[in-house]
Amino acid sequence: MLLESRVAIITGGAVGIGRGIALKFAEEGCSVVIADIAAIEGKKTAEEVSKKGGEGIFVSCDVTVGRQVQDMVGKAISKFGKIDILVNNAGGVSGPEGSLDDVNEEQWDKSLNLNLKSAFLCCKAVVPHMKKNKYGKIINISSLGAVHPAVSVVHYHAAKAGVLGLTYNLAFELAPFNISVNAILPGPIRTPFWEPVTRDIPDKDAYFAEIAKKEVPMQRIGTPEDIAGAALFLASELSAFVSGETINVAGGLPQLPHSATITG
Ligand SMILES: NC(=O)c1ccc[n+]([C@@H]2O[C@H](COP(=O)([O-])OP(=O)(O)OC[C@H]3O[C@@H](n4cnc5c(N)ncnc54)[C@H](O)[C@@H]3O)[C@@H](O)[C@H]2O)c1
């Protein structure tokens, strides 16, 4: 198994991509701390982790609040004695509007806190424990929209681009401590993330099929398992000499889809 005896914290691990990563890691022998604000789903995912082989625990934590992050990491250390892997996955967009005209100062701050400050806070709390062990794998979940936006979601894409800056800087700073820092840039992945935009759409399958046809060269929407595969590579010794890297997991995006017609 690729993660035998390892311990991971996965923020936003209750549902969606975080849950997919948690289950994949568990299959490889990893114990997982699900750090999330969604208690019911988080506890359920932690139980699923335990059934798969690793030990799963849920810790309630709003990752935008430094004190809560410190407490969550303290609980992880009390339980497992170390943290080998940190996946900064919690994130999202609060609504469908995202142009410069739409987004106000409050929404900007909220998005930066959830998608960027959270990763900084978790790194700050976890890295001292990794340094002590001279071992660590940090995986930051950014977005393909940070570098190739398909629509304007200015506060979210700017925050996700900030996650790449954090990744490059910390990769450089932490390499001497044998701590690697990499980022995954997901394309469209079908999870509860899409609820704010699909809430009023009756045929959601048709909606996602249309996006896949129009935008994704592989002609399908991604799944949490698609992201989990790349995360497993970055969390395991398969990536022992890889740091400061970004991996698009986006079905061939940002290439043109096969259905696209180039004119002019
Ligand atoms: N789904 C996509 O198409 C897509 C594409 C690109 C990037 N991403 C990124 O991938 C990551 C995971 O996305 P997802 O699709 O699984 O989203 P999701 O909305 O399905 O799940 C997000 C999880 O984060 C948790 N969360 C939200 N706010 C939190 C907070 N303040 N503290 C702790 N936990 C919190 C939620 O409870 C939930 O469990 C996010 O960072 C997202 O921005 C997703």
Please provide a written account of the structure:
- This protein has eight helices and seven strands, in the order βαβαβαβαβαβαααβ.
- By secondary structure, the protein is an alpha/beta fold.
- The chain has one domain (7-249): Rossmann fold (3-Layer(aba) Sandwich), CATH 3.40.50.720.
- Helix 1 crosses helix 8 (224-235), helix 3 (66-80) runs parallel beside helix 4 (105-133) and helix 4 (105-133) packs parallel to helix 5.
- The radius of gyration is 18 Å and the shape is globular.
- Nicotinamide-adenine-dinucleotide (NAD) binds at residues 11-12, 14-18, 36-38, 61-64, 89-92, 114, 141, 143, 186, 188-189, 191-193.
How is the topology of this model organized?
Blueprint: E1 7-11, H1 16-27, E2 31-36, H2 39-52, E3 56-60, H3 66-80, E4 85-88, H4 105-133, E5 136-141, H5 154-174, E6 179-186, H6 195-198, H7 204-215, H8 224-235, E7 246-249
Parallel strand pairs: 1-2, 1-4, 2-3, 4-5, 5-6, 6-7
Helix pairs in contact: 1-2, 1-8, 3-4, 4-5
This protein binds nicotinamide-adenine-dinucleotide.
Nicotinamide-adenine-dinucleotide binds next to helix 1.
